[in-house]
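Lab channel / #folding
Pinned by the channel admin:
"Please post every new chain as: sequence first, then the structure tokens as a reply. Keep commentary short and put observations after the output so the thread stays searchable."

First post following the new format, from NK:
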Amino acid sequence: MATLTLDDIRRMAADIGLTRLTDAHLEALLRATQASQTRRGKLKIEQLGYADEPAHMFSLDQRGAL
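Reply from TO:
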């Protein structure tokens, strides 16, 4: 896994239209991305199947609002 830099994050953010982020925002995004990559790298996924994918479920109350 290549080490990400602040310039990498700045470029990725710009690619998806996040052009107004401050350096503090970009640094936080860099830390979060690095933490996510570290956690993902430690997951044992060899035996996971599609059924192991988490399902996100939402329900509506009686008025139809979330």
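NK: The radius of gyration is 18 Å.
TO: also worth noting, DSSP finds two helices and no strands in the chain.
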